[in-house]
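[Meeting: bench + compute handoff]

Bench side (C.D.) handed over the final construct sequence. Compute side (W.E.) agreed to return the predicted structure before the next meeting so the bench team could plan truncations. Sequence as handed over:
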Amino acid sequence: MFATTVGPDGARMRWVEMPGIEPARVYVHGLGATAPPYFVAAASRPELTGHRSLFVDLLGFGLSDRPAGFDYTLTGHAEKLATTLDAAGVRAAHVVAHSMGGAVAIALAHHRPDLVGRLVLIEANLDPNPAPTAGSSGVARYTESEFLSGGFEETLRRVGPHWAATMRLADPVGLYRTAVGLVAGTRPTMRRMLERLPMPRTFLQGGLTGPVADQVGLEASGVRVVTIPGAGHNVMLDAPVEFARATAAALADQPVPA
């Protein structure tokens, strides 16, 4: 395990790393998740091995610290992720990010394009005010006091055992404030930032989720949109082989295999 201090309060972000060639690949988890269990199996497929790979947990989640003074906004998470990648000596990384983590990765690429050479987003949140089941899991519908006095336990029961297994490792305050930040979004919005980014960008969508909102607009801005048949929101868990193939093709600027 690796760690670096990311704030004056001494908070540390932690990641698991596999050695390999540069550029590094950086995997970023979604809300209530942690990077290793969501990504390691798919990233260990032969299509994706060989590169240095960092599985990073954002503040408030998984292995990383839970600073009370952190704002837990998308931009705040992106700033701390940038600090972590600087400390790890990462430049022009292949950033692979899921759901809420995709929104953080877009903000990272917007503010620090030197850190992101290619971007693969898996069902990333692109717009403010997502549906309660999309990325935020309904957490933001509570007030903070309601969430801390029973809403967290209700949410764990509602999301089911798989998501709850990692969500229960999250700091309840950090989870709640991150969900609120996800609903608020960024200015400009994540979608607008994504459309304007200069690096190669791919958006992976699970076929069971339904169509991507404004896919035509994304593609017109140069974002490659790829649908993974038979997969839901957690594409890398639902269809790890197809995910690995599509991600490897995106990172190599090759056609996605049929």
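W.E. noted at the follow-up: The domain at 2-251 is CATH 3.40.50.1820 (Rossmann fold). C.D. will use this when planning the next construct.
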